[in-house]
């Protein structure tokens, strides 16, 4: 697509990375500053009219709301009014799959702070996207080319 790519894991604080490396799940208090920082990155790209892709485990509806609206989303569940701080237009791609498939992929990953033991806490926290959120759900059991085609279709046809 020629879009900028951001891996949200690169923006975790050293404290968050340490917690995860020790097998301690992150909580809302840990995640909110990280999500606000990611919103700032997306807002900056939007201000330059640059499309971007962010790989991020935005597990809860509130987390996705922060990505779209920034820090103001914490105080309110209402979307911001149009204007300078209007909500970002984001398509969330929910990659869905069985725990055992994801666990198998995590076991193969080397040198990452997210430990396999944290997978259960991720599933416990997960609130899959639902209407009126702007999202698509794709099975991770599809091939990578199939997944990419579905995402591209949703971007350009959606």
Low-pLDDT parts are: 79-83
- Overall, the morphology is globular
Estimated structural class:
alpha/beta
Give a count of the beta strands, DSSP E runs of length 2 or more: 4
Share of residues in helices: 40-55%
By CATH, the architecture is named 3-Layer(aba) Sandwich
CATH fold naming: Rossmann fold
Order of secondary-structure elements: EHHEHHEHHEH
How large is the radius of gyration?
16 Å
Count of domain modules: 1
| Helix count from the secondary structure assignment | 7
Strand content: 5-15%
Keywords: ATP-binding, Kinase, Nucleotide-binding, Transferase
Enzyme class: transferase
Family: Belongs to the gluconokinase GntK/GntV family.
Protein name: Gluconokinase
Question: How would you describe this structure to a colleague?
Answer:
This protein has 158 residues and is of the alpha/beta class. 46% of the residues lie in helices and 11% in strands. The protein has 7 helices and 4 strands. The strands form 2 sheets. It has a two-stranded parallel sheet with strand order 1-2. α2 packs parallel to α3. It is globular, with a radius of gyration of 16 Å. Belongs to the gluconokinase GntK/GntV family. Pathway: Carbohydrate acid metabolism; D-gluconate degradation. It is an enzyme of class 2 (transferase).
């Amino acid at each position: 697509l020629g879009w900028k790519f951001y891996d949200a894991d690169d923006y975790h604080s050293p404290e968050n990375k340490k917690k995860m490396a020790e097998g301690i799940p992150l909580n809302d208090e840990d995640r909110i500053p990280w999500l606000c920082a990611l919103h700032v990155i997306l807002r900056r790209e939007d201000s330059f009219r640059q499309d971007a892709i962010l790989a991020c485990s935005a597990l809860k509806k509130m987390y996705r709301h922060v990505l779209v609206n920034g820090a103001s989303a914490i105080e309110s569940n209402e979307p911001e009014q149009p204007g300078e701080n209007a909500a970002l237009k984001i398509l969330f791609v929910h990659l869905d799959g069985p725990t055992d498939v994801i666990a198998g992929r995590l076991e193969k990953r080397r040198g990452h702070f997210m430990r396999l033991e944290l997978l259960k806490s991720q599933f416990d926290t997960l609130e899959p996207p639902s209407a009126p959120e702007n999202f698509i759900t794709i099975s991770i059991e599809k091939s990578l080319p199939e997944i990419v085609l579905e995402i591209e279709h949703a971007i350009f046809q959606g």
